[in-house]
Amino acid sequence: MNVVWRILFYIGVLWRFYGCRHFIVEAACPKGCLCLSPAQVMCNSGELREIPLKNMPLTVETLALQKNIFPVIKSDAFLGLKALRKLSLDRNNITTIKPFAFRGLPRLRDLSIQHTPLAVVASFAFAGLQNVSQISLCHNKILRIEAYAFAGSAGIRLLNLADNPTVLVETNAFSSLSSVDRLILPSGIRNISQDAFFALDMVGYLKLSFMDLSEVSAFTFRGLTNVKLLSLQESDLGVISANAFDGLDHVDTLNILNNKIDAIHELNITAVNHVRTLRLQGNHLLETPEPGSITLEGLGVLHVVGNYFPCGCHIHTLLDSPLANGSYASGEDFLSKNYCISPLEVNGLQMAQLDIFAIGRCHEQVTRENLEASGAASLAVSLDHFRWCRGSSSCISSLPYKEQCPVGDSENLEEMPV
Ligand SMILES: *[C@@H]1O[C@H](CO)[C@@H](O)[C@H](O)[C@H]1NC(C)=O
Ligand SMILES: *[C@@H]1O[C@H](CO)[C@@H](O)[C@H](O)[C@H]1NC(C)=O
Ligand SMILES: *[C@@H]1O[C@H](CO)[C@@H](O)[C@H](O)[C@H]1NC(C)=O
Ligand SMILES: *[C@@H]1O[C@H](CO)[C@@H](O)[C@H](O)[C@H]1NC(C)=O
Ligand SMILES: *[C@@H]1O[C@H](CO)[C@@H](O)[C@H](O)[C@H]1NC(C)=O
């Protein structure tokens, strides 16, 4: 009897011991993951179809869920991970992020979703990120950024969307991002809706480059306030429409650099815009703006340098405009610092080398068609590379100055010895 009891006792102890050990291992780490510590979990096995919340230690601070195959991030997908600070979902097969996918993560600071087929940043996908300061969305297939995608995520300081085929930035796309230092948008944007940047209250640096717009439409920048540097550069801006810059307020520097501009229907920057420095540099303007269509008032500094303008009879209209008429100091050496784009005979010539007085003012319809024809011929030469670039993404991506996603910690995680 004694012996039997002893045997039963040992069996019981052994069962409890193994069972318990088994239990600890299971509870500590989800299947398909490697728990390096209670604070660091890697699930890079490649086999996960769902977010492995079951058995995830609630103490996890750094979570890498890379190279898996979950196509959808559901709403509240990470609910309960209250200690989570850094989350990487790079290299997954993510095609959909549902609204409020990352809600309820009060300590999350750093979110990375790169190298996925994600095509839309849907409304509210990144909403309610109370404490996130950095989102890297580089190297995805994002075509569209919808309204209110980042609603209520006011702490975001860096939003990097580099290297996406983004075509459309919808109205209110960035609303709520009230303290962004750097907003890095992809190349090749074709359509920025009016009010796209509405309620971006405090932006360090907003660079819009390699765009392929048909127009800078009315109210594109409305509601964008307190910007250190807003730069439109290396883009085909199409037509600058009336009211394009209306509602843009408090800008240290507004750069319009190295663009092709088909026409300026109106450029009206006044004291209400509070623009300190306007720099127009290296642009090719294909048509002379109509008399009175340019108003530049209340600027601290105006730089108009290295641009190419039509030098036909309309040159007098240009020289009378505030770009050149001496309202600002830069107007005085306008002629020595800018160049002709047309007619063909003077293409590339410094304006100062022209005999301005010998160029007659335009008379009603005088040989207008001839002038335009020669203008068109010269453009084919000087704007060759713009034409070549239009619509060609390979060209765009081969151009310099492209913002790279910073090599963040999510990359380092991958290199960590396992
Ligand atoms: C990725 O997701 C798409 C759409 O959900 C699916 O068709 C495809 O088979 C998935 N690929 C892998 C490797 O699971
Ligand atoms: C949010 O981040 C700040 C700065 O790192 C930190 O001080 C604060 O405690 C965080 N909030 C929460 C709820 O963790
Ligand atoms: C830009 O996109 C909006 C919304 O889809 C559309 O209504 C508008 O016509 C587009 N504009 C251009 C110039 O393509
Ligand atoms: C330019 O903008 C100011 C301020 O918004 C406005 O009062 C003025 O009428 C505009 N001028 C033109 C020519 O549109
Ligand atoms: C330049 O042109 C603007 C607008 O036409 C005008 O208001 C301004 O007085 C002109 N400045 C000079 C110095 O002629």
TrEMBL record:
Keywords: Leucine-rich repeat, Receptor, Repeat, Signal. GO terms for cellular component: plasma membrane. It holds the Pfam family LRR_5. SUPFAM superfamilies: L domain-like (SSF52058). Residues 1-20 form the signal peptide. It comes from the Eukaryota. PANTHER family: ANTIGEN BSP, PUTATIVE-RELATED (PTHR24369), CHAOPTIN-RELATED (PTHR24369:SF210). This is Reticulon/nogo receptor. It comes from Culex quinquefasciatus (Southern house mosquito).
